[in-house]
Amino acid sequence: MVARLRSIAEELRGLDDGVRAEELEGRVKAARQEAGRALRDRLDLYGDDGGTIRLGRHRFAVNTRPIELTLVPHRDTVAFAITGTDYRAPVQDEGFAATRPLWNQTLVSETAETYRAEYLATSILATSPLDDLFAASADGRLLGLVRDAAADRYDEGYERGVHDHDAARILEALLRLRADAGLLRYPGPARATAQLFWTHGPDETERGMWTARARSLVRARQAFGRADALADLTAELTASITEFTERHDLRLPDPLTAEYLIEELAAAPDGFVTSQGARALLSRPPATSWPKPGWPPTWRPARPATKRTSPRPWRRSCARPPATTPPPR
Length: 329
Description:
Elements: H1 2-14, H2 18-45, E1 46-47, E2 52-55, E3 58-61, E4 69-74, E5 77-82, E6 88-90, H3 94-97, H4 116-127, H5 130-139, H6 142-151, H7 163-181, H8 188-200, H9 204-224, H10 229-247, H11 257-266, H12 276-283, H13 304-309, H14 312-319
Antiparallel strand pairs: 1-2, 2-3, 4-5, 5-6
Helix pairs in contact: 1-2, 4-7, 6-7, 8-11, 9-11, 10-11
């Protein structure tokens, strides 16, 4: 570049334009001097190829990375910090303070209550097709399937030969329980809310419509492996169940209530699944004849919320071992 500029200056002199030639050569000379001063300053101030600054006997590290705001642990809390500085400012936010139990959690896959192999097994169960899992379990390929799933999750801290082996054993037990339990795999509150809604919520027309749609979509899922319309039906039933519980002052429904109801409507025979403990409680003869003859009915309410809560003390008393009961006053 310098040679090119000098060549241009010579051409300008050949054209009798010495003023511009001198100006161009002056700029080249000034640029050379400025570069020399910058180089000398750099050699005098910087060391270790620019990694440190020398001021007399002292050396200071040079941070060329951009300044960022981040969160770091600080004493017994979490604080804002500016990288490359000692600035620390504790976070003053009540919503963030509610997440304190998670501050010392180093892995997303493990907590004080959940072993990371349990997390791996349940996540595979929730995201993988059941038919594939049952086939892998029957063919002895379950461990390989778990290892392949764990290999792609680098940030979850799985150790080969430890967590994948434990997860395979847990998943095998879960598959066996799922096959044996059937619809009892859904939590009791979800099943109870579904029965209460189905009995007191929709009319006969709505029951028939939802039953037909549930059976049709479940058959489509069994035939083709998926049925996107099931999500729409689940959302529709969830909205109706939520509106029903709010109208009757019941607790908010379990998130699995609508999903359970769809599976129950599509299953045969008609009706709701009942656990062995509930059947045993209903079939057990009462220890005494309650209520006594001549007693007035103490609960015959019409609202579903009261129908659910009023008999609760009676059910608890019936479920307890027989005891000596004082006569009514």
